[in-house]
């Protein structure tokens, strides 16, 4: 009951955040230095006052700011997203987002998963075996992963996979599942259109999509993996020296139970915010990784829309990003209440 | 231990094994325990050649300032010394079985511990009941409904009201005093014969402190527990202990039954500790203190580690390491004041009190059985 109340409260509290975030997006684009009307015109046309005014009218920028703001916010919250101004000019924003979003979420999901599944266990292992050779190897490789720039890692990985036949003696493209389009390109997610359950009912398609995204996800998740490893190691080291662990040892709790029951659960507490922060960064997409691997994702789309001042698209994408972030935050709060009973019972 | 025949002083250092009154039948025997911590710069001898024994049902008090090695002694007994610490030498025997050399599991649960800070002794993410049941399962093989009932009974036995509800609560839902009671309940779930209490009341306020001491006293009677009670509070020692060991800089400097120690302290350090108990001085007088602080021992002692702060120190204290010698019935002290052959300009009679010259000590040695 208490837990439910706490979570409902968190959900309600995210409404003002959503409103503030979208309002600021409107303010920055509408009042900011980017002039969408000028971007709409070609070089020569920009010199003509009449054409410029016509462009402003066409985009609705000649309205009084307050009216523009209210109209814009209204259509955003009623999900009437309109058409793009400049990026893929005139296309339906809603359709564009629905086309690009799944690819980014797919990429983000797998990069988060890879980071958690490799980084956290490795960090915990290094923490348990602190100052051993295994710890040094894990720690150093964690730092190396953390330090490698994404664009460099992406290029190296691409080169290795493309040349896999001559380098390792197997061809990545036909390895396990044949990918006709090669290493780069969009993962084929269209089979799930209108039928999300196809994720489970058509495992072959799903595996192909996973294989396609894996190199990009590994690159995108590499820094997070290193971060989570280092934080995980520190968390275990700290928890290991807590008095309740000594007390458990003195009570004769077997070593395995001490590690799994008493150390890990407490070590997860400082890891949760790290994981969720990283998760948001990754799901937010990465222009670099999407560019190198030729994935048409939200990162690249948002970048194009933002520098050109495509207000309908930027606004919609910001809206989507804010909703994603709030969802992850709420997931984090739920995780907290599950891991640590001290959280959430006092209306905090 | 440097108790070799080449010792320059004629006095016999007390043979530690012999002091354990027959040897072998004590519940816990600690002999020549030396626990060191290896740091990059130096080796800290946190516990240096300490010997004592605990009989069934007895309360042994270990007293000393912060940094005198009390807690490390406690952790050594429980086998909780971690790298960079190591038990360098000595033996710890429980019911005659050697525990050092990683044999703690043979008597796991027979010795239990209560730490100083109850807020950190229980795992915050599990209920109190969970942690009691975990212990019950390991040591008494009790599971399921029976374990739930036993957990409630244990909480009731340590004086927690409404135990049936509280057993399902988390440690942070308990107040400080109640939490320490819960910790004691978890410690008792091992069904121990010996309970090591490492400053169990220091983190609590004074009224709660008295309640916890009373609880420990009651439990000791009911369960026939032996207790090693570690504290820096002489007042608490006077109330709880049967016998007292005074520690200083990792060494045991004086050991005696509690009445004897309070009436006839033989080591200047013990006298200093007793003098600094509030309420013992004439009101209006300044409370005496011992100036300076406990040195960190980094090498085997070649002098008296207390000499720098000792009001009665003389030349030889800087040169000779005093061994514990018998100074009264069941009473030892490690101080050159009680050894013959050393020149000191203080009046011996003042220092030694009656009946505690070395000759007398020999005379009472035969009848010096512990009460």
From TrEMBL, chain A:
Keywords: Cell membrane, Membrane, Transmembrane, Transmembrane helix, Transport. GO terms for cellular component: plasma membrane. Its main location: membrane. Residues 101-332 form the ABC transmembrane type-1 domain. It comes from Halobaculum saliterrae. Belongs to the binding-protein-dependent transport system permease family. The chain crosses the membrane at residues 12-30, 105-128, 149-170, 311-331. The keyword Transmembrane applies. CDD domains: TM_PBP2. It is found in: Cell membrane. It is a multi-pass membrane protein. Pfam families: BPD_transp_1, BPD_transp_1_N. GO terms for biological process: transmembrane transport. It comes from the Archaea. This is ABC transporter permease subunit.
Automatic annotation (TrEMBL), chain B:
PROSITE patterns: ABC_TRANSPORTER_1, ABC_TRANSPORTER_2. It is found in: Cell membrane. Residues 1-19, 346-355 have a biased composition (Basic and acidic residues). Residues 1-21, 346-371 are annotated as: Disordered. One of its GO terms (cellular component) is plasma membrane. Keywords: ATP-binding, Cell membrane, Ion transport, Membrane, Nucleotide-binding, Translocase, Transport. The complex is composed of two ATP-binding proteins (NikD and NikE), two transmembrane proteins (NikB and NikC) and a solute-binding protein (NikA). This is Nickel import system ATP-binding protein NikD. It comes from Halobaculum saliterrae.
């Amino acid at each position: 009951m208490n837990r439910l109340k706490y979570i409902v409260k968190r959900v309600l509290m995210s409404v003002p955040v959503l409103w503030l975030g979208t309002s600021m997006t409107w303010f920055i684009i509408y009042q900011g230095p980017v002039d969408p009307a000028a971007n709409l015109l070609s070089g020569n046309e920009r010199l003509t006052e009449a054409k410029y005014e016509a462009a402003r009218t066409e985009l609705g920028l000649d309205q009084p700011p307050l009216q523009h703001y209210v109209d814009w916010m209204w259509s955003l919250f009623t999900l009437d997203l309109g058409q793009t101004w400049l990026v893929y000019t005139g296309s339906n924003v809603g359709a564009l987002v629905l086309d690009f979003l799944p690819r980014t979420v797919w990429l983000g999901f797998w990069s988060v998963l890879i980071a958690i599944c490799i980084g956290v266990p490795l960090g915990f292992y290094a923490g348990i075996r602190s100052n051993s050779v295994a710890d040094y190897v894990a720690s150093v490789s964690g730092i190396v992963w953390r330090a490698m720039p994404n664009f460099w890692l992406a290029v190296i990985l691409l080169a290795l996979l493309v040349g896999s036949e001559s380098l390792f003696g197997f061809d990545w493209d036909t390895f396990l599942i044949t990918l006709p389009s090669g290493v780069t390109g969009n993962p084929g997610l269209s089979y799930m259109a209108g039928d999300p359950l196809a994720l489970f009912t058509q495992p072959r398609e799903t595996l192909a999509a996973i294989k396609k995204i894996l190199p990009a996800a590994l690159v995108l998740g590499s820094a997070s993996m290193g971060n989570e490893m280092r934080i995980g190691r520190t968390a275990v080291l700290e928890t290991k020296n807590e008095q309740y662990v000594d007390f458990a040892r003195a009570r004769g709790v077997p070593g395995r139970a001490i590690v799994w029951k008493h150390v890990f659960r407490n070590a997860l507490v400082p890891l949760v915010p790290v994981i969720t922060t990283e998760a948001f960064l990754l799901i937010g997409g990465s222009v670099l990784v999407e560019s190198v691997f030729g994935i048409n994702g939200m990162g690249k789309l948002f970048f194009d829309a933002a520098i050109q001042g495509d207000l309908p698209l930027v606004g919609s994408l910001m809206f989507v990003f804010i909703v994603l972030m709030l969802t992850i935050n709420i997931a984090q709060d739920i995780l907290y209440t599950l891991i640590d009973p001290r959280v959430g019972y006092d209306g905090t | 231990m440097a108790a070799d025949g080449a010792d320059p002083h004629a006095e016999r250092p007390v043979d530690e094994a012999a002091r354990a009154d027959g040897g072998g039948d004590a519940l816990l025997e600690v002999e020549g325990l030396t626990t060191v911590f290896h740091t990059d710069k130096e080796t800290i001898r946190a516990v240096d050649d300490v010997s004592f024994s605990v009989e069934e049902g007895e309360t042994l008090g270990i007293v000393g300032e912060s940094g005198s090695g009390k807690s490390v002694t406690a952790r050594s007994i429980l086998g909780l010394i971690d790298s960079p610490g190591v038990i360098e030498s000595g033996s710890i025997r429980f019911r005659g079985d050697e525990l050092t050399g990683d044999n703690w599991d043979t008597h796991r649960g027979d010795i239990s511990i209560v730490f100083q800070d109850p807020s950190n002794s229980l795992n915050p993410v599990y209920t109190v009941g969970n942690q009691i049941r975990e212990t019950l399962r390991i040591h008494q093989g009790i599971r399921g409904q029976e374990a739930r009932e036993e957990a409630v009974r244990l909480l009731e036995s340590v004086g927690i009201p409404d135990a049936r509800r509280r057993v399902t609560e988390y440690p942070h839902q308990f107040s400080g005093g109640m939490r320490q009671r819960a910790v004691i309940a978890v410690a008792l779930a091992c069904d121990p014969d010996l309970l090591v209490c490492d400053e169990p009341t220091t983190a609590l306020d004074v009224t709660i402190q008295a309640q916890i001491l009373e609880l420990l006293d009651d439990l000791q009677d009911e369960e026939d527990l032996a207790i090693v009670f570690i504290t820096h509070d002489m007042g608490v020692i006077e109330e709880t202990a049967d016998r007292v060991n005074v520690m200083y800089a990792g060494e045991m400097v004086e050991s005696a039954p509690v009445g004897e120690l309070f009436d006839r302290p033989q080591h200047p350090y013990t006298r200093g500790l007793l003098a600094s108990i509030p309420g013992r001085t004439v009101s209006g007088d300044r409370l005496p203190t011992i100036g300076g602080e406990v040195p960190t021992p980094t090498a085997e002692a070649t002098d008296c580690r207390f000499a720098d702060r000792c009001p009665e120190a003389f030349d030889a204290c800087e040169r000779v390491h005093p061994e514990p010698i018998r100074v009264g019935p069941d009473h030892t002290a490690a101080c050159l004041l009680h050894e013959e052959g050393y020149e000191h300009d203080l009046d011996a009679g003042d220092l030694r009190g009656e009946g505690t010259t070395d000759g007398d000590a020999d005379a009472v040695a035969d009848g010096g059985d512990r009460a």
